[in-house]
Amino acid sequence: MTSVAELEKICQKIMQLDPKMRSARIINNRGHLTAGGMKEGLKSLEETKQDEMMFMELALRVRMRRDFDKEFGHVHFAMSYRDKVIIMSFPLADDDVLLASGEREIDFSKIAFAIMDLIKDLREDHTKTF
Fold first, then answer.
1. Is 53 among the domain residues?
2. What is the mean pLDDT of residues 98-120?
3. CATH number for the domain that contains residue 37
4. What is the DSSP letter of 17?
5. What is the mean pLDDT of residues 91-116?
6. What pLDDT score was predicted for residue 94?
7. Total domain count for the chain?
8. Dihedrals φ, ψ of 80, to 5°?
9. Residue 116: CB partners within 8 Å, gap ≥ 6?
10. Is 66 part of any domain?
């Protein structure tokens, strides 16, 4: 099991990958924030109460995506390209999830795979490649 301090360090490394990163957060399988947060000096686009709802919905969505693993293979990450921000989610072991966000101008193809490299030890099966 990875300690909260180690998870915080990983979140900090993710936010340092690119100046356009906004946040990196580890959400547990019940939808509660375990580690990470917004980049210092930035304000969240949503209210705190909406954060809680988003985290719970994300935890549920990650579990539901596993229903199609047999047909399509495992999900390595999912991304939403929105009007104001790019949001990426990465399934972790024990149905936890990494939620990362960045400005729309970020090179999301590079950043997503850089993040996957940073979190490889937090994933369910370390032998799978992407």
1. yes
2. 94
3. 3.30.450.30
4. S
5. 93
6. 86
7. 1
8. -120, 125
9. 76, 77, 90, 130
10. yes
